[in-house]
């Protein structure tokens, strides 16, 4: 017998009205590395953390350009994202072909939402296993949408999906009120700061693992990869997680305290309390999730 | 005896082989589609001016040379800031009106601040017209689309049953292409000329053109509609306008038509 | 639900020995977990209001509309799985689209409700699909006046003067019963709707919510379904808040 007999397909409700297969698909997003998106009054920015399956392998693409005014960042099953991005490209092209108009961001976002919903209501299909951040600029300004496998599409000032994205969200929630008046550059830096908070302790943002997409008023969607990311990382300065940094600082403080304590062993100088909670916090960190972006 | 009536009077299978039913099902001849229009509307004329675009079309629906309907409206407001003028087949016009109505309804669904404006509607109609001509089943019309560009400047475009498209600061369909365009080009020949023409001046030329067309085009009417799309996003429809100060004295001198003996 | 786990609740379209389709009942549970949606049939139209639970402060206020339009004259509000609601609205749009192509007039609201409920019902008949996880309030104005219906996940549909679904439906329904239906004016109905959503909202469970109100009325919108003007929404919300606070005060006094 199955552990939970209501979770074998996406068309069976649990007695509480939940769709477990759809909820599990939402979990698949967290298996991928993080993507972060944010908007100002003039620009929309995507930043994402790329992974490589092995040392000699290439890094999995995380940001995909859809049209001149539009791009997506993904977390979860990359092949599913490719299906959706191809669909979005088709939608964007037909908007140009039929109406001579760049497709409104909100409309292409809800199109994929409606497409995803179908997979949750028919037997023999599975929900998409990928979350997308859709960022674009149209007549009504810059927009950021979060797409989920459930078919939910919501517009955000800032959003983060993927592994440890809660840390990025925490950063966004703390600082989103200042986004509106940011320049494109400041917005990218906010994005990178949010993104680096999703890093595992010993990891850093590098030109290999960081992708940046920018779109805005009079600036078509531009994707920065590899060497082009370098200048952004220089502007960012510290490329490690602030959480990792905090731990490093605390470790240093601890060491300093220990040596100070040793020095002050003879005297009655007060010793610094080494926060014991740190080790616990470190232990709580989730292990690097399996590579599903590849 | 063969009790199947459908087999009676046919070549006998046992003598001539199985009857080819394709012969029976062949119909009257090759499949054909609309080759000619029936109820038609004549010219639509339009020109840009400093603050927008002005169009005119008369209210006649002709059945060949018969002036069959005298209350046809051929200028259609599409959304809040676009006017489409249609000449040619009236039933195809009605179909185009249905397409445009559905288009607007769908465009309104998301309520996201996006609205189809003249260039978008023009592109859409161009696709429809070219598609149908490629199916060798054209919508028998020539269409003008007038409104505002994305940058707020006046927009005017033409598309016809062949899918031919072009833009110009003054355009006319049908007979208007010969009779009205020269008059309109007197004041708006180049794109830049439109900036020096006021709404009043444009109206004067439009009225003059409609009068000339009524004089010379035997499928026209002296009752017409003038639509004005202004850049502040307003559409005025001036209906049941009549040609003024006409003089038909010269008609007495025309010979060779009608009932005169000499 | 004593029959849970007896195996008759694992597949759609299967009756249990006592004649129930559990999957349909479970779908209704999804409805009960979502924010309240109400519809009011007033003198010359229909007013919709929804309580949109704000799950994150990063969400753009005013975006992410939940009330949708079918054709020009019909509004839809629903509680439950939002993507399912969008699916059903899409179906309604196709119905009205094809109706218009055939008859050159807008589809009547009763016909639309009938066809939509047929569609929902079909999703209870096959093991290859699941029922819709939404209760949908459909309303609008047509030649025969204002209409308001609710379609349940089972495909059942009922006409209403005031309808409510979602978390706060019980509280909302008792508030709706106090209104002078269907004589209330559209404008008054908007204010009443705002008040009802505030009453139905449970502060203890969900902190933040956004109020969304739309209407379709002969006198106010010329028979078109639209969101109410900003000023009216703000006024309605202000009155609703004041009222809500008063009641809270009263409660406190009662406790004293």
From TrEMBL, chain A:
Main subcellular location: cytoplasm
Keyword Nucleus listed: yes
SMART domains documented for this protein: Proteasome_A_N
Entry's transmembrane regions: none
Compartmental location: Cytoplasm; Nucleus
Biased composition (Low complexity): 253-275
Keyword flag Nucleus: yes
Taxonomy, superkingdom: Eukaryota
Region of interest (Disordered), residue spans: 240-294
Keywords assigned by UniProt, alphabetized: Cytoplasm, Nucleus, Proteasome
Domain Proteasome alpha-type subunits: 6-28
Record family assignment: Belongs to the peptidase T1A family.
UniProt function note: The proteasome degrades poly-ubiquitinated proteins in the cytoplasm and in the nucleus. It is essential for the regulated turnover of proteins and for the removal of misfolded proteins. The proteasome is a multicatalytic proteinase complex that is characterized by its ability to cleave peptides with Arg, Phe, Tyr, Leu, and Glu adjacent to the leaving group at neutral or slightly basic pH. It has an ATP-dependent proteolytic activity.
Protein name: Nucleophile aminohydrolase
UniProt source species: Myxozyma melibiosi
TrEMBL record, chain B:
Superkingdom field: Eukaryota
This protein's GO CC annotations: proteasome complex
Main location: cytoplasm
One Pfam family per UniProt: Proteasome
KW Nucleus (keyword) present: yes
Keywords attached to this entry: Cytoplasm, Nucleus, Proteasome
Coiled-coil region(s): none
CDD domains listed in its UniProt record: proteasome_beta_type_4 (cd03760)
Compartments, as annotated in UniProt: Cytoplasm; Nucleus
Purpose: Non-catalytic component of the proteasome.
Stated family: Belongs to the peptidase T1B family.
PANTHER family: METALLOPROTEASE TLDD, PROTEASOME SUBUNIT BETA
Protein name: Proteasome subunit beta
Species for this entry: Myxozyma melibiosi
Automatic annotation (TrEMBL), chain C:
Composition skew (Acidic residues), residue ranges: 243-256
InterPro entries registered for this protein in UniProt: Ntn_hydrolases_N, Proteasome_alpha, Proteasome_alpha-type, Proteasome_asu_N, Proteasome_sua/b
Signal peptide extent: none
Region Disordered, residue ranges: 237-256
Organism superkingdom: Eukaryota
Proteasome alpha-type subunits domain sequence ranges: 8-30
Entry keyword set: Cytoplasm, Nucleus, Proteasome
Record SUPFAM superfamilies: N-terminal nucleophile aminohydrolases (Ntn hydrolases) (SSF56235)
Major localization listed first in the record, in broad terms: cytoplasm
Keyword Cell membrane: no
Subcellular location: Cytoplasm; Nucleus
Protein purpose: The proteasome degrades poly-ubiquitinated proteins in the cytoplasm and in the nucleus. It is essential for the regulated turnover of proteins and for the removal of misfolded proteins. The proteasome is a multicatalytic proteinase complex that is characterized by its ability to cleave peptides with Arg, Phe, Tyr, Leu, and Glu adjacent to the leaving group at neutral or slightly basic pH. It has an ATP-dependent proteolytic activity.
Family per record: Belongs to the peptidase T1A family.
Subunit text: The 26S proteasome consists of a 20S proteasome core and two 19S regulatory subunits.
Protein name as it appears in the record: Proteasome subunit alpha type
Organism: Myxozyma melibiosi
């Amino acid at each position: 017998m199955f552990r939970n007999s209501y979770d074998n397909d996406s068309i069976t409700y649990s007695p509480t009205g939940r769709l477990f297969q759809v909820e599990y698909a939402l979990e698949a997003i967290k298996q991928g590395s993080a993507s972060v998106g944010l908007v100002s009054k003039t620009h929309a920015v995507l930043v994402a953390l790329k992974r490589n399956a092995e040392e000699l392998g290439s890094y999995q693409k995380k940001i995909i350009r859809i049209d001149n005014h539009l791009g997506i960042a993904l977390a979860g099953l990359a092949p599913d994202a490719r299906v959706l991005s191809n669909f979005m490209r088709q939608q964007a092209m037909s908007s140009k072909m039929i109406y001579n108009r760049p497709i409104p961001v909100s409309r292409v976002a809800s199109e994929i939402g409606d497409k995803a919903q179908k997979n949750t209501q028919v037997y023999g299909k599975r929900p998409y296993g990928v979350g997308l951040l859709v960022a674009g600029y149209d007549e009504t300004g810059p927009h950021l949408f979060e797409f989920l496998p459930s078919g939910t599409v919501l517009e955000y000032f800032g959003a983060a999906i993927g592994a440890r994205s809660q840390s990025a969200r925490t950063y966004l929630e703390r600082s989103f009120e200042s986004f509106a008046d940011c320049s494109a550059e400041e917005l990218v830096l906010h994005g990178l700061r949010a993104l680096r908070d999703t890093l595992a302790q010993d990891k850093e943002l590098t030109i290999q693992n960081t992708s940046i997409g920018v779109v805005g008023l009079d600036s078509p969607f531009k994707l920065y990869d590899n060497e082009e990311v370098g200048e952004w990382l220089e502007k960012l300065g510290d490329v490690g997680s602030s959480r990792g940094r905090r731990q490093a600082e605390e470790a240093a403080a601890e060491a300093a305290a220990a040596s100070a304590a040793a020095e002050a062993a003879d005297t009655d100088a007060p010793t610094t309390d080494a926060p014991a909670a740190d080790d616990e916090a470190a232990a709580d960190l989730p292990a690097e999730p399996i590579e599903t972006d590849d | 005896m063969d009790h199947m009536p459908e087999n009676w009077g046919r070549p006998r299978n046992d003598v001539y082989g199985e009857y080819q039913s394709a012969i029976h099902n062949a119909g009257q001849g090759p499949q054909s589609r609309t080759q000619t229009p029936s109820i038609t509307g004549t010219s639509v004329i339009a020109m840009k001016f400093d603050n927008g675009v002005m169009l005119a079309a008369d209210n006649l629906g002709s059945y060949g040379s018969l002036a069959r309907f005298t209350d046809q409206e051929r200028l259609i407001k599409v959304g809040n800031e676009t006017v489409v003028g249609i000449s040619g087949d009236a039933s195809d016009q009605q179909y185009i009106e249905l397409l445009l109505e559905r288009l607007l309804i769908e465009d309104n669904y998301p309520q996201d601040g996006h609205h189809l404006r003249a260039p978008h509607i023009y592109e859409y109609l161009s696709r429809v017209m070219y598609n149908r001509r490629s199916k060798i089943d054209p919508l028998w019309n020539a269409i003008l689309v007038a409104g505002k560009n994305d940058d707020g400047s006046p927009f005017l475009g033409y598309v016809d049953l062949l899918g031919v498209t072009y833009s110009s600061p003054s355009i006319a369909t049908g007979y208007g292409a010969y009779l009205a365009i020269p008059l309109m080009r007197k004041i708006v020949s180049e794109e830049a000329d439109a900036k020096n023409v006021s709404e009043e001046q444009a109206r004067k030329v439009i009225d003059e053109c409609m009068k000339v067309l009524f004089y010379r085009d035997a499928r026209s009417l002296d009752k017409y509609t003038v639509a004005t799309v202004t850049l502040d996003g307003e559409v005025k429809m001036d209906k049941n306008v009549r040609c003024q100060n006409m003089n038909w004295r010269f008609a007495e001198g025309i010979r060779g038509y009608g009932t005169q003996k000499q | 639900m004593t029959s849970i786990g007896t195996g008759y609740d694992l597949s759609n379209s299967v009756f249990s020995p006592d004649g129930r389709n559990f999957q349909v009942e479970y779908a209704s549970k999804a409805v009960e977990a979502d924010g309240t949606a109400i519809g009011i049939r007033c003198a010359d139209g229909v007013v919709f209001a929804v309580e949109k639970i704000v799950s994150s402060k990063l969400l753009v206020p005013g975006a992410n509309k939940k009330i949708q339009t079918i054709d020009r004259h019909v509004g839809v509000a629903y509680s439950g799985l939002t993507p399912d609601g969008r699916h059903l609205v899409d179906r309604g749009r196709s119905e009205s689209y094809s109706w218009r192509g055939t008859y050159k007039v807008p589809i009547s609201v009763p016909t639309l409700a009938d066809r939509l409920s047929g569609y929902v019902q079909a999703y209870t008949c096959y093991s290859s699909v699941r029922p819709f996880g939404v209760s949908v309030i459909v309303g609008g104005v047509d030649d025969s006046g204002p209409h308001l219906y609710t379609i349940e996940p089972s495909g059942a549909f009922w006409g209403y003067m005031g309808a409510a679904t979602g978390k706060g439906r019980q509280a909302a329904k008792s508030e709706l019963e106090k209104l002078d239906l269907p004589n209330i004016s559209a404008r008054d109905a908007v204010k009443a709707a705002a008040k009802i959503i505030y009453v139905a909202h449970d502060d203890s469970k969900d902190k933040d919510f956004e109020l969304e109100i739309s209407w379709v009325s002969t006198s106010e919108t010329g028979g078109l379904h639209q969101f109410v003007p900003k000023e009216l929404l703000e006024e309605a919300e202000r009155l609703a808040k004041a009222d809500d606070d008063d009641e809270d005060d009263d409660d406190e006094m009662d406790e004293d």
